[in-house]
Amino acid sequence: KTIERVRQAVAATGYIPNLLAGGLKSKRSLMVAGLVPTIQVPQFLPTVKALTETLDEAGYQLILGQSGYDHSREEKLLNTMLGRRPDGMVITGLVHSPQAREQLRRLGIPVVETWDLSDRPVDMMVGFSHVKVGSAVAGFFLSRGWRRLGIATGDDHRAMMRHDGFIAAVGHDVATAIVPAPSSVEWGRRAMAQLLQQDPKLEAVYCSSDGFAQGLMIEAQSRGLRIPQDLAVCGFGDADFAAHLQPSLTTVHIDGAGIGRLAAQMIIDRCAGKTIDRPIVDVGFRIIERQSTGTAAGA
Predict the structure, then answer these.
(1) N or C: which end of the chain has fewer CB within 10 A?
(2) Are residue 201 and residue 103 in the same domain, yes or no?
(3) Does residue 2 sit within a domain?
(4) Please, what is the average pLDDT of the chain?
(5) What does the buried/exposed string (b/e) look like for 225-252 if buried means 16 or more CB atoms within 10 Å of the residue's CB?
(6) What is the pTM of this model?
(7) What is the tally of structural domains in the chain?
(8) Distance, CA of 211 to CA of 41 (rounded, Å)
(9) Is 192 in the same domain as 271?
């Protein structure tokens, strides 16, 4: 009864407890900092959603920062967030700066790098190999009999790693359009024009995002090209709209929600003093075949 009267009094007065004061005693802020390049790109949204929900269930709140694919801005955001003493940190991509890596280690909080893989994580990692993604798409194209290939990519680190994997698998340079990240429908139309200038007889193009691929398809169709009869297209990310385009878009599926859940659980477990048996987790990827790709004539 006493507890209930206290609750009623709190509700009546609108009292909000000082979490900072409580955190000083427990040495816990109940906040986890997250860094993403942007929330404008659909591929990161399932990760952010799953991360938020999983942390919330354990009593933690996510503070999100957007770097805009700018490394200097990312470092400033990192410093600002660490100044708030979060209980953990989840970062999209790898931490490349030696100063930032050392700063994170010195603070001693759990850190999860996501959406990439490395054998030298700051602490823990949940992701996949972008080089292998590019290589797999190139292999998929070649297995269908296409030889005149192109790639349209954003200029961020992860997209360029996929580009490198693609080129390595093909074994030679191909028609290439590189645009500022984040790529978009508008940039996709421009990229298609650039690629056709380089090779008017292109057979298949790999794009670094589904939105980028959508723009590329729009431009190709506006020029009278049929997809996939004249040009095959593959995207990346398996955005929720990809299956509903006309034609539907072949793309690379990443378990973004799974990345978010695993990253959050790693933070929660470490904060609870548990040992993480697998500090590096490869979630893999898979190519989802839809209408925008088909078998080349005579293959």
Answers:
(1) N
(2) no
(3) no
(4) 90
(5) bebbeebbbbbbbbbeebeebebebbbb
(6) 0.86
(7) 2
(8) 8
(9) no
**Burial category of 210 from C-beta neighbours within 10 Å (exposed 0-12, middle 13-18, buried 19 and up):** buried
Query: pLDDT digits over 168-179, tens only?
Result: 999 999 999 999
Q: 87 and 109 in contact (C-beta within 8 Å)? A: yes
Residue 254 contacts by C-beta under 8 Å, 6 or more apart in sequence?
43, 115, 128, 237, 238, 283, 285
Q: How far is CA 123 from CA 120, 174, 211, 263, in A?
A: 8, 37, 32, 12
241 and 145, same domain (yes or no): yes
What integer is the mean pLDDT of 42-60? Answer: 94
147-203 per-position pLDDT tens digit: 999 999 999 999 999 999 999 999 999 999 999 988 889 999 999 999 999 999 999
Same domain, 44 and 89: yes
> What does the alpha-carbon distance between residue 256 and residue 131 come to, in Å, rounded to a whole number?
18
| 3-class secondary structure, 57 | helix
Domain harbouring 259, CATH code: 3.40.50.2300
Evaluate whether 233 touches 207 at the Cβ level (below 8 Å). yes
List the domain range (segments joined by +) for residue 141. 130-253
Q: Could you tell me if 244 and 267 lie in one domain?
A: no
**Are residues 140 and 154 located together in one domain of the fold?**
yes
What pLDDT, on the 0 to 100 scale, is given for residue 88?
A: 96
**Within-domain flag for 55:** yes
Q: What is the pLDDT of residue 145?
A: 94
State residue 40's pLDDT score: 77
* 258 Cβ neighbours under 8 A, 6+ residues apart: 50, 283
Q: pLDDT tens-digit profile of 92-130?
A: 998 878 888 888 888 889 999 999 999 999 999 999 999
Q: Are 230 and 140 members of one domain?
A: yes
